[in-house]
Design goal:
The protein is an alpha/beta fold. The chain is built from 10 helices and 8 strands. The protein has a single domain, classed as P-loop containing nucleotide triphosphate hydrolases (Rossmann fold, 3-Layer(aba) Sandwich), CATH 3.40.50.300. The structure holds cytidine-5'-monophosphate.
């Protein structure tokens, strides 16, 4: 019998850009053998598609149409971070550029765009489980997730992490410009009227300033064990 989506376990990992949530979510998903939803990538693809179609940023109905009709495919098995294909073109690198991040935060502030993406995000919830990373995974998309984690870190550390990440990918940026852009994006994400960036009251808040990825992953996996104690048994050979 197919498992109802609501019975599939979900771990929601939210937080601001550079808090490490993407890296942590990916490592947790890999350790558990679960699916992964990088919702930021989805907003980045919408931002990129809107820029490519030269949409007017004030045309909220038009932006929502772009989000609804988005011909995007997430191929999680290709490469380290998976491959994202938009209308036949590989946009995995293009969406990581700061311009796409900026466009993402603009379209993300439009309520109709967010609404258009709700079901698409919920469809990622498939057995054996989902680790979802974003801003509103615990508060809006998967409010019934039994584990909600909110990762934070100082703005300086987050800018430095993003700087190193982009450098590694051969993308040239200046640290002060990145820091300024990040603070501005934080402000816009926190102040917007719909789904503002805020920890759910039932989220576990973890400040990752000065912590390594491995330490954070171990902590989250421990919480997964507490939230979904039956999992090991269900997935074991006797299940
Ligand atoms: O996480 P990432 O930096 O890739 O997200 C890009 C932008 O997409 C964020 O700045 C935010 O504005 C938006 N976003 C969102 N809700 C999500 C994920 C991302 O509003 N669940």
């Amino acid at each position: 019998m197919p498992v109802a989506a609501a019975e599939v376990p979900v771990v929601a990992i939210d937080g601001p850009g550079g808090s490490g949530k993407g890296t942590v979510a990916r490592a947790v998903a890999r350790a558990l053998g679960w699916h992964m939803l990088d919702s930021g990538a989805l907003y980045r693809v919408v931002g990129l598609a809107a820029s490519q179609q030269r949409m007017d940023w004030e045309d909220t109905a038009g932006l929502a149409r772009v989000a609804r009709d988005l011909a995007v495919v997430f191929d999680p098995l290709s490469g380290d971070e998976g491959r994202i294909v938009l209308a036949g073109s590989d946009v995995s690198a293009a969406i990581r550029e700061e311009a796409a991040g900026h466009a993402a935060s603009r379209v993300a502030a439009v309520p109709a765009v967010r609404e258009a993406l709700v079901d698409r995000q919920r469809r990622f919830r498939r057995p054996p489980g989902l680790v979802a990373d974003g801003r509103d995974m615990g508060s809006v998309i998967f409010p019934d997730a039994r584990l909600k984690v909110f990762l934070t870190a100082s703005v300086e550390e987050r800018a430095l992490r993003r700087y190193k990440q982009l450098k590694q990918k051969g993308i040239d940026v200046s640290l002060p410009a990145l820091s300024k852009d990040m603070a501005e994006r934080d402000r816009r994400d926190a102040e917007r009227a719909v789904a503002p960036l805020r920890a759910s009251p039932d989220a576990r808040i973890l400040d990752t300033t000065g912590l390594g990825v491995a330490e954070v992953v171990v902590r989250v996996l421990h919480w997964v064990g507490e939230a979904y104690p039956g999992l090991a048994r269900r997935e074991g050979p006797d299940a």
